[in-house]
């Protein structure tokens, strides 16, 4: 087989279609939908989605080490793994259907690919993580939260902050999935295709996050620290707000560029259960912390276009919910996220 980094560019369409179908050989339904052609395109929808993923979707991945693995070794793994191939097709068709929202074929293909990706991924997770499965499990997990981050036609009123719909906050809870899988895969990561990239990122994050203070208010936003009850003795063990505040303090000063935008995006995957529980209860300090991050991501959306799918709308929802507060600290702290997401505060 050819080197993975040249696969998408050197294989003929028929060869590529055959390899993709072989990866999904157990699913006759995919063979049927894969034969469907979109308007003005004679290629099967599987090829359209796969090539778009390779040629465009992966270019939005900010960290060069991660992007390189995704364009090379991950594709090789996908050719032998149904849940990863379905996830790739789901991501590619999602990207396309958001660009062409009136195309019903793309929308149907997107729904089908994600349905099958989730089903086959859940089946894979029911077995013990092994050296043979770790590459595909990690790779799939990196994209599995994408569909919830980029829902079709999301409005601020759909947010858990403004509605009582069960599961409306699940999208945020899903983002910690990679952390869980890495924990399960710990013994096998060193032999994984991701080993070098993860080590590179770990070294960068040690410098960014672990060289700061581990106790007290130094370096934290003073208004946020006051609102969250942070004093000179506070640590991550004594306050669920402390770690998210520390992360915000580390990422806000970063230069705005593609690589740093990718680092900023990892905030949502670092949130612990205690903080997520506060968000679910619509706790004002927790919502303000999340809104600061969402506002930051809105300013970075040129490098992280998925922000437009949900994050901007969720940020507006938090602004709508909190603008009724008469607390001057909350009013001050809302100004940045409101401005960044495009929401006009009544008192601004």
Task: Please describe what this structure looks like.
It is a single chain. The chain is an all-alpha fold and 348 residues long. It has 2 domains: 4-144 and 175-194, no CATH class; 212-341, no CATH class. The chain has helices at 7-10, 13-23, 28-34, 45-55, 64-71, 73-78, 82-99, 104-125, 134-144, 146-149, 170-174, 177-185, 195-209, 222-227, 242-251, 258-265, 273-280, 284-299, 311-322, 328-341. Mean pLDDT is 89; it is low at 1-11. It comes from Aspergillus hiratsukae. GO terms for molecular function: DNA-binding transcription factor activity, RNA polymerase II-specific. This is C6 transcription factor.
How would you briefly describe this protein structure?
By secondary structure, this protein is mostly helical. It has helices spanning 7-10, 13-23, 28-34, 45-55, 64-71, 73-78, 82-99, 104-125, 134-144, 146-149, 170-174, 177-185, 195-209, 222-227, 242-251, 258-265, 273-280, 284-299, 311-322, 328-341. The protein has 20 helices and no strands.
Describe the secondary structure blueprint for this structure:
Layout: H1 7-10, H2 13-23, H3 28-34, H4 45-55, H5 64-71, H6 73-78, H7 82-99, H8 104-125, H9 134-144, H10 146-149, H11 170-174, H12 177-185, H13 195-209, H14 222-227, H15 242-251, H16 258-265, H17 273-280, H18 284-299, H19 311-322, H20 328-341
InterPro entries: Zn2-C6_fungal_TF (IPR052400)
GO molecular function, one term: DNA-binding transcription factor activity, RNA polymerase II-specific
Protein name: C6 transcription factor
């Amino acid at each position: 087989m050819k080197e993975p980094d040249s696969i998408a560019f050197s294989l003929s369409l028929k060869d590529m279609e055959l390899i993709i179908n072989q990866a999904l050989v157990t699913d006759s339904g995919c063979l049927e939908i894969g034969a469907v052609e979109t308007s003005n395109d004679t290629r099967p929808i599987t090829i359209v989605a796969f090539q778009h993923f390779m040629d465009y979707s992966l270019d939005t991945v900010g960290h060069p080490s991660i992007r390189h693995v995704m364009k090379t070794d991950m594709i090789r793994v996908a050719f032998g793994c149904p849940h990863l191939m379905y996830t790739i097709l789901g991501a590619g068709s999602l990207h396309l259907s958001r660009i062409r929202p009136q195309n019903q074929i793309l929308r149907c293909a997107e729904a089908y690919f994600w349905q099958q990706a989730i089903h086959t991924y859940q089946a894979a997770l029911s077995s013990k993580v092994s050296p043979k499965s770790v590459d595909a499990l990690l790779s799939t997990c990196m994209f599995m939260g994408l569909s919830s981050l980029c829902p079709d036609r999301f409005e601020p009123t759909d947010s858990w902050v403004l509605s009582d719909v069960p599961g409306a906050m699940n999208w945020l809870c899903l983002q910690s999935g990679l952390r869980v899988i890495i924990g399960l895969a710990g013994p096998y990561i060193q032999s994984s295709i991701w080993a070098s990239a993860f080590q590179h990122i770990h070294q960068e994050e040690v410098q960014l996050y672990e060289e700061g203070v581990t106790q007290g208010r130094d370096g934290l936003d003073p208004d946020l620290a006051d609102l969250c009850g942070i004093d000179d003795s506070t640590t991550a063990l004594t306050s669920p707000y402390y770690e998210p505040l520390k992360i915000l303090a580390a990422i806000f000063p970063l230069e705005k560029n593609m690589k740093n935008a990718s680092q900023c995006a990892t905030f949502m995957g670092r949130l612990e259960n205690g903080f997520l529980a506060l968000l679910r209860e619509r706790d004002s300090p927790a919502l303000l912390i999340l809104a600061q991050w969402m506002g930051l991501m809105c300013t970075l959306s040129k490098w992280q276009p998925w922000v437009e799918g949900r994050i901007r709308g969720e940020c507006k929802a938090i602004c709508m919910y909190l603008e009724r507060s008469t607390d001057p600290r909350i009013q001050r702290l809302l100004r940045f996220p409101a401005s960044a997401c495009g929401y006009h505060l009544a008192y601004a």
